[in-house]
Amino acid sequence: MAPVAVVLGVMGAGKTTIGAAVAEALGVPFADTDAIIEERAGKPIPEIFVDDGEAAFRALEREVVASSLRDFGGVLALGGGAILDDGTRKLLADHTVIYLSVELTDAIKRVGLGAGRPLLAINPRATLKYLLEQRRPLYLEVATHTITTDGREPEEIATEVVALLQSA
Ligand SMILES: Nc1ncnc2c1ncn2[C@@H]1O[C@H](COP(=O)(O)OP(=O)(O)OP(=O)(O)O)[C@@H](O)[C@H]1O
Ligand SMILES: O=C(O)C1=C[C@@H](O)[C@@H](O)[C@H](O)C1
Ligand SMILES: [Mg+2]
């Protein structure tokens, strides 16, 4: 079994919002690797970063992505930084991967002050600008489809994603 689609994008791209709406429209389950990681680790992501460090988080994330790609048959949202890991990017080959793109202005409006997002704890605007520039080429490397989300309502974006999955 493999996911119907994998959803990627930076924090605030709308992975959880759009992924869940697409799954509902298709009548399949939705899962978010961040939630699976928290369940496996038995603690919230900010605590994993503090206690174990980002490298340990990325290794756990790679394991969770691998098992989800193997066993989960719905719409799967990945954490915003999952594509930083070479092994995780390789795992995505041959899957349908939807990259939700967002520019800084809309991303900042959506994440606010970055509560619950450890990488945005200090200077969220400058950090998010850096993350967008650093990650865009990596999202594009693994994406099979890129959907622009700036200035668009979640319902409209979800409808576009459902249509492209149904035409595939
Ligand atoms: N297209 C959109 N237009 C306006 N607001 C949006 C849009 N998509 C998502 N949002 C809002 O932005 C916030 C972040 O969305 P969401 O949690 O889905 O992003 P995410 O990509 O899953 O982020 P994270 O990587 O932190 O999990 C939520 O409050 C959501 O309602
Ligand atoms: O952009 C990132 O690097 C992250 C995004 C979140 O989804 C979480 O996976 C975690 O907070 C790291
Ligand atoms: Mg999310």
Automatic annotation (TrEMBL):
Tell whether RNA-binding is among the UniProt keywords: no
Q: What is its EC number?
A: 2.7.1.71
Family according to the record = Belongs to the shikimate kinase family.
HAMAP family recorded for this chain? Shikimate_kinase
Q: Name one GO biological process term.
A: aromatic amino acid family biosynthetic process
Q: What is the lineage of its organism?
A: Bacteria, Bacillati, Actinomycetota, Actinomycetes, Micromonosporales
Q: In which pathway does it act?
A: Metabolic intermediate biosynthesis; chorismate biosynthesis; chorismate from D-erythrose 4-phosphate and phosphoenolpyruvate: step 5/7
Q: Which UniProt keywords apply?
A: Amino-acid biosynthesis, Aromatic amino acid biosynthesis, ATP-binding, Cytoplasm, Kinase, Magnesium, Metal-binding, Nucleotide-binding, Transferase
Q: GO: which molecular function terms?
A: ATP binding; magnesium ion binding; shikimate kinase activity
Whichever gene encodes this chain, its name is: aroK
Where Mg(2+) is bound, by residue? 16
The residues that hold ATP are 12-17, 117, 152
How is the cofactor bound, as the UniProt entry phrases it?
A: Binds 1 Mg(2+) ion per subunit.
Q: Where does substrate bind?
A: 34, 58, 80, 135
Q: What is its main location?
A: cytoplasm
**Which compartments is it annotated to reside in?**
Cytoplasm
| A Pfam family annotated for this UniProt entry | SKI
Q: What is this protein called?
A: Shikimate kinase
Annotated PANTHER family: SHIKIMATE KINASE, SHIKIMATE KINASE 1, CHLOROPLASTIC
Top-rank taxon: Bacteria
Task of the protein: Catalyzes the specific phosphorylation of the 3-hydroxyl group of shikimic acid using ATP as a cosubstrate.
Enumerate the catalysed reactions. shikimate + ATP = 3-phosphoshikimate + ADP + H(+)
List the record's Gene Ontology CC terms alphabetically: cytosol
Which stretches are annotated as coiled coil?
none
* Quaternary structure, from the entry: Monomer.
Give the required cofactors. Mg(2+)
Is Translocase found in the keyword set? no
